[in-house]
Design brief:
The chain is an alpha/beta fold and 509 residues long. 50% of the residues lie in helices and 13% in strands. It contains 22 helices and 15 strands. The protein has helices at 2-10, 27-41, 54-63, 76-86, 88-91, 97-100, 103-122, 124-133, 147-158, 181-196, 214-228, 262-271, 283-292, 306-317, 322-336, 342-355, 363-377, 381-396, 410-418, 425-439, 451-454, 476-486; strands at residues 16-20, 47-51, 71-75, 136-139, 162-167, 199-202, 233-234, 243-247, 276-280, 337-338, 406-407, 446-450, 459-465, 489-497, 506-507. The strands form 4 sheets. It has a 6-stranded parallel sheet, sandwiched between helices. Strand 13 (459-465), helix 22 and strand 14 (489-497) form a beta-alpha-beta unit. The longest helix has 20 residues, at 103-122. It is globular and about 75 Å long.
């Protein structure tokens, strides 16, 4: 049995153990059970569990409850930030690492990882000190490690730490540049090289589905094999108990919207009516689906939210510039919701700030002036946070001109308003990020999520909208993204596929 052989290999004296772990095959159980046992046997130091998402951190935290003094669970990015913070002067990095890292879609994390990896490779004392603190490192979802993150982990091995690495090349959706087949091929080559240099085994039993739909679990593993072999997946209706295939073509005229005819919509609404995670391939599609259900299904925001990082950076750089700060409020509101656009509110907000709210106003313009005065009174992150708090109150009260505004990312707005309590925006962002990390939130029982933010999570019921050509083309990246989506549900998986443009990764007849 693979379960028994993997458990024995993890507990062996091998310095490097690599386990290929398809979704739902007991990887977290094996890793957490080994961490619990090993943490009690270490003569010094702590077990370090490294993940790539905060959702996965939460799962491991639940499985190792009561051992926080002996088991440290964090993302690989947070480990990199820890090292970068200590040596930021030597690395030539700025002081405000928490916000700087999120700029330009998080490119700062890649820069930090490259610098930290090189520093650890050049300075044995650094990697050896970390290895003494963490003599055993368990790496989760290592296929998502960037080349620099992989070097950081290998530096820990060079420092004397034992490594236990779990990964699945069919779930590589976070690799830097992973949308290209070249990047995917490089990631696969790195994984194969790691396997060759290690003691290696494979998990192959679909535990996730044992109490739900075992037949669906077997179908998911078969689908994985098809994707790995670049064969189309069978979506014949009778393929497996728990698998439901719906046909519906998106007829929306706007690229980011989602709309289907009434007859096609009824079964989709029924599938999403109860506890369910609705999965989509992109943020645009999630926002389109949110509108499709009139924002009645909350969006799972996850941990990493770039809109707040952009707002913090802007308020720091434009402090004392009220017009620029008003524009930052408009940009932020557009990123977290709908209905607060330049034409509807934003242009008037900027005008009022520029003119100092000089003219008397009533109704909607007066409400916009209330927002503007926060920025005029305090042209800093304090005023921006106050303005967003005023916006929130006006929306909640359905004030004149604000009743149609919908906040899609509610958590992001709440966190932005909290910035008012901090002396500087970077300090506030760092504290909010820390709270997010330690809160380990889980998605609501009924939610919308991108496939990326659902990575590492599981649910009883999932709906994938939509398995269409524009969402899942014939690429290795799309295959990985599709497999992650198909493997979330334990009991019932509903896949919505276009009538006229189904994904080439499916076989429908």
């Amino acid at each position: 049995m693979s379960d028994a052989s993997v458990a024995a290999l993890l507990r062996s004296a091998e310095p490097l153990v690599v386990i290929e772990a398809p979704a739902g095959c007991g990887k977290t159980f094996q890793g957490a059970a080994y961490a619990r046992e090993a943490s009690q046997a270490l003569p010094q130091g702590r077990v370090l569990i490294l993940t790539h998402t905060h959702g996965a951190c939460g799962v491991f935290a639940n499985r190792t409850r009561g051992l926080s003094s002996r088991v440290d669970i964090r993302t690989i990015d947070s480990l990199v930030i820890q090292v970068a913070t200590v040596y930021r002067r030597a690395l030539g990095l700025p002081d405000n690492l928490s916000t700087w890292a999120y700029q330009n879609d998080g490119e700062g994390f890649d820069i930090m990882a490259i610098k930290v990896a090189g520093y650890m490779e050049r300075h044995p004392i650094v990697r050896e000190a970390l290895a003494r603190r963490y003599p055993l490192v368990i790496c989760d979802e290592h296929q998502d490690a960037s080349p620099a993150q992989h070097r950081v982990i290998m530096a820990l091995r060079a420092g004397g730490a034992r490594l236990r690495i779990f990964g699945d090349p069919l779930q590589a959706i976070f690799v830097s540049g992973s949308k290209s087949n070249t990047a995917m091929a490089a990631a696969l080559s790195r994984w194969e090289g790691l396997k060759a240099a290690s003691a290696f085994d494979v998990l192959d039993h679909p535990h996730r589905w044992e109490k739900g739909s075992p037949e669906l679990g077997r179908w998911v593993l078969d689908a994985r094999a098809d994707l790995k072999a670049r064969r189309p997946i069978s979506l014949v209706q009778s393929a497996a108990a728990g698998l439901i295939v719906l046909r519906a073509t998106n007829v929306a005229q706007v690229r980011t919207a989602y709309q289907v005819c009434r007859d096609d919509r009824r079964p989709i609404d029924a599938a999403a009516a109860k506890e369910v995670m609705v999965l989509a391939a992109s943020n645009d599609r999630v926002r389109g689906l949110s509108a499709f259900w009139d924002r009645r299904i909350p969006i799972w925001e996850g941990h990493t939210r770039s809109a707040l990082a952009d707002l913090v950076r802007t308020t720091r750089e434009q402090s004392g510039q009220p017009v620029a700060l008003a524009q930052s409020v408009l940009t932020f509101a557009g990123a977290i919701g709908v209905g607060f656009s330049p034409s509807s509110h934003g242009d008037r907000l900027v005008k009022e700030v520029r003119e100092g709210c000089a003219r008397p106003a009533r109704g909607k313009p007066a409400h916009i002036q209330r927002i503007a005065r926060h920025i005029l009174d305090e042209p800093s992150h304090h005023g921006v946070a106050g303005a967003l708090g005023e916006l929130h109150d006006l929306i909640e009260a359905k004030a004149d001109g604000f009743g149609d505004i919908k906040i899609v990312h509610r958590g992001e707005l709440r966190d932005a308003i909290r910035l008012k309590a901090f002396t500087c925006p970077d300090e506030g962002f760092a504290e909010i990020a820390r709270r997010r990390s330690h809160a380990l939130p889980a998605p609501p029982s009924r939610s919308l999520s991108t496939i990326h933010k659902a990575k590492g999570l599981e649910c009883d019921n999932a709906v994938l909208i939509a398995g269409d050509q524009d969402q899942f083309g014939d690429t290795d990246y799309a295959r990985c993204k599709l497999y992650v989506a198909l493997s979330r549900a334990k009991r019932r998986l509903t896949v919505v596929v276009s009538h006229d443009k189904p994904s080439p990764l499916f076989r429908l007849a």
